[in-house]
Specification:
Helix content: over 70%
CATH topology: ABC transporter involved in vitamin B12 uptake, BtuC
Radius of gyration: 21 Å
Number of domains: 1
Low-confidence stretches: 1-18
Distance between the termini: 17 Å
């Protein structure tokens, strides 16, 4: 890439290119219509509350993974990060020292720190050691899943009223409290992406790492930060899940990396890096959550539900490839026009 073409590449607004929100909203509306015709219970208040409640945890995790993908990497360790966080927080909540339980904020902070630590490990190995992110995170996925199995054998119940209320409290008896938390994180991360240099660097590094470095961006710190955000988001998702279910299990989080990846790709986060935004991720989270719920109400077998999610992923990947090729052809054309001038 020449210096002139690099300027053309970085002159674009990576936050707004090829937005998919309108198409996703149409898909969401059509899906709601179809499932409501199959089973009218789908649009009942109780079922909508259930969809929003279950979508909050996965939505937060999708926000975190989006940063890693935007910066040109992958994080397949989020499922095991969720699992080990659930086990740790459950044990700490039930832990008694000198006849007294640990303060709840201490247990929650410890859970978040687990995700931060795993993010630092992944980020360091990818950014500073130079190991491929797929290899690194598949390795840490196995390591921390193994530790989770070693730490816990039986389920650990959690009876802390305040903690359980995090996942089961409804504002006005309608809006889940954890849904409001998800919206708050979305808004915070949107402003981080849109109005901070660190957030914009995620796009620059993902779009073209070498050109970003020539522009003065520290790609290693940027990638490290993306993994830390992903790890903390996965831990927060685990805390929300634990508060909803009320017990921990060593199998929690298995397969989550696949579902969260589907949400990100469907939401327009390009697997090639450097393109996408969180509004698309928000809508796609509602789509996947609604599909999972609707298939249950339609009495579809579990295996077919998984197959349906896989079909969605393949379709989203094909769309991503087509959009990327179109953008690349357009970039080459603009580059040639710029060089001719």
């Amino acid at each position: 890439m020449t210096e002139k073409s690099a300027k053309i590449q970085f002159g674009r607004n990576h936050l707004a290119v090829n937005s998919m929100e309108s198409a996703l909203l149409i898909v969401l509306g059509a899906m709601v219509l179809v499932f409501s015709l199959i089973n009218p219970l789908f649009i009942s208040v109780g079922n909508i509350k259930s969809i929003l409640t279950m979508a909050a945890g996965t939505g937060i995790m999708a926000v975190g993974l989006s940063f890693v993908i935007l910066s040109g990497n992958f994080d397949f360790s989020i499922g095991s990060t969720l699992g080990i966080t659930v086990v740790l927080v459950a044990k700490l909540i039930n832990l008694e020292i000198a006849g007294s339980q640990l303060p709840l904020p201490v247990s929650l902070l410890a859970g978040i720190m687990i995700g931060l630590g795993i993010g630092l490990i992944n980020g360091y190995l990818v950014s500073y050691v130079g190991i491929n992110s797929i290899i690194v995170t598949l390795g840490t996925l196995s390591v921390f899943r193994g530790i989770t199995y070693w730490v816990i054998i039986d389920n650990i119940p959690v009876h802390h009223g305040l903690f359980v209320g995090i996942g089961r409290y409804f504002i006005g008896d309608v809006i889940p409290a954890n849904f409001i938390l998800w919206i708050g994180i979305l808004i915070l991360m949107y402003f981080f992406m849109r109005f901070t240099q660190a957030g914009r660097n995620m796009y620059l590094v993902g779009a073209h790492k070498t050109a970003a470095e020539f522009s003065g961006v520290d790609s290693r710190k940027t990638q490290m930060l993306s993994f830390v955000i992903s790890g903390c988001a996965a831990s927060l998702g685990g805390i929300i899940k634990l508060s909803q279910i009320g017990f921990s299990d060593s199998t929690f989080g298995i397969g989550y990396e696949f579902h969260i990846l589907v949400i990100c790709v469907l939401g327009g986060i390009s697997l090639w890096g450097g393109r996408g935004n969180l509004m698309g991720v928000f809508i796609s989270t509602l789509i996947i959550g609604s599909i999972s719920n609707g298939l249950v109400l339609a009495d579809v077998e579990v295996n077919w539900r998984e197959a349906f999610i896989g079909i969605i992923l393949i379709g989203a990947l094909l769309m991503d490839v087509l959009v990327t090729k179109r953008r690349e052809m357009k970039r080459i054309k603009e580059s040639r026009i710029g060089e001719s001038k």
